[in-house]
Amino acid sequence: MKVTPEADEKMSKMKFFSVYPHYVKKVERKGRTKEELHQVISWLTGFSEDEIQKMIEDKVSFAEFFQKAKLHPNASLISGSICGYKVEEIEFPISRQVRYLDKLVDELAKGKKMEKILRSS
């Protein structure tokens, strides 16, 4: 599937705080922790625990969220399909970055080892 400009705009306007509880629920349902989720978010974005919480409280959009982020240099190693899209083929930066996060959350929920999720081995 290919991301359209309209879908990219919709994703860019989506609020991080509205998706965040779904991330927490997904990982906790599979026996992982909120702390591990924050470790994954921090790895991808460079945000501290306090900065993640501030993004939630400020109800920032995904566009604002990723504009403030300092993506990890190994983020481009994230590949595979998520929600029917091949992450590495998404041309719109915000959509690709949101799908990076979705992919990492999915890997965490599936029980992958943290070293693999964080592309450190």
Please explain how this structure is put together.
It contains 7 helices and 2 strands, in the order αααααββαα. The chain has 121 residues and is mainly α. It has a single domain (5-117), classed as uncharacterized protein sp1917 domain (Helicase, Ruva Protein, domain 3, Orthogonal Bundle), CATH 1.10.8.290. A two-stranded antiparallel ribbon has the order 1-2. The chain is globular and about 35 Å long. The model has no long low-confidence stretch (mean pLDDT 94). It comes from Algoriphagus boseongensis. This is DUF2200 family protein.
Features:
single chain; 121 residues; mainly alpha; Helicase, Ruva Protein, domain 3; two-stranded antiparallel sheet; globular
Give a nutshell description of this structure.
The chain is mainly alpha-helical and 121 residues long. A hairpin with a 2-residue loop joins strand 1 and strand 2.
Q: What is the CATH architecture annotation?
A: Orthogonal Bundle
Report the count of strand segments.
2
**If you average the pLDDT, what whole number results?**
94
Question: Compute the gyration radius: what is it?
Answer: 13 Å
Helix coverage percent: 55-70%
Number of domains: 1
Q: Tell me about the biggest sheet?
A: 2 strands, antiparallel
What kind of oligomer do you see? single chain
Low-confidence stretches: none
The CATH superfamily label reads uncharacterized protein sp1917 domain
Order of helical and strand elements: HHHHHEEHH
Assigned CATH class: Mainly Alpha
Helical segment count: 7
How much of the sequence is in beta strands?
A: under 5%
Class by SSE composition: mainly alpha
Molecular shape:
globular
Pfam families: DUF2200
Protein name: DUF2200 family protein
InterPro entries: SP1917_dom_sf, UCP033199
Organism: Algoriphagus boseongensis
